[in-house]
Amino acid sequence: MICSRLTNRYWGQGVVYSTVDKIIEVAESQVRAGGYNAFSFREIAKQVGIKSASIHYHFATKADLGVALAHRYTARFEQQLDRLAENSAQPSDRLEGYIALFVEALTVDKKMCLCGILAAESDVLPEALQRAVKVFFEVNVAWLQDALFADQPQARAQAQAFLILASLEGALLMSKTMQTHAPLQQVSKLLQQDCWQ
Q1: What is the pLDDT of residues 136-167, one digit of tens each?
Q2: Integer Cα distance of 133 and 130 in angstroms
Q3: Is 24 buried (19+), middle (13-18) or exposed (0-12) by CB count in 10 A?
Q4: Does domain 70-194 have CATH number 1.10.357.10?
Q5: CATH class for domain 10-58?
C-alpha cells in the first residue's frame, strides 16, 4: 500500500517539497524520459539525496510508486482540463488549450506525456499501474466528449475524442522520435481545422 506520510522538507525555487513529492518528481522525470524501466529506487534515492530504503518506507514496491505517479499526473492534467472548461466557452478555444498541453510537454518539458509512454508499455506493466494509466485516458476522452462535442450523438462524440487524443499522443511520440516539432505542429493544425467538419 502507498504510504501517504509527508516527511523531511526540501526547498527549491521558493517551494517546499516533501520527501514523497521529491521522489515522485524525480521518478516522473525519469519515466517521461525513458519509460517504466528507466527509473530505479537507487537512482531516485541518489538524486533526492536519501537512501533507497527511505523510498521503500513511502512506496513498498516500484509498482506502488508507478501508480502514485499516474494518479498524480492524471489529477494535475484534470485540473488543467477543468481550468480550460471554466475559462473557454467555445469548443474551438477549448481544443486550442487542450492541444497546448501537449505542445508544452514537447517544447517546455521536452518529454513525453507520462501516461502516453506508460500506455506504450502497458503489456509489461503491473496490473495496478495498467488500471491507473487507463484512468488517464478515460478522463481525457470523457472531457473531450463533454467539453467539445456535447451537442453531437454520443458515438460520434466518443469517436472524435478518440481521434484527438490518439492523434496528439501519436504526434508527440513521432516528434520525440524524429527530433522535430513538425509532426505535433501539423497534426495540431489539422485537428483545429477539421474537427467540426
Answers
A1: 999 999 999 999 999 999 999 999 999 999 99
A2: 5
A3: buried
A4: yes
A5: mainly alpha
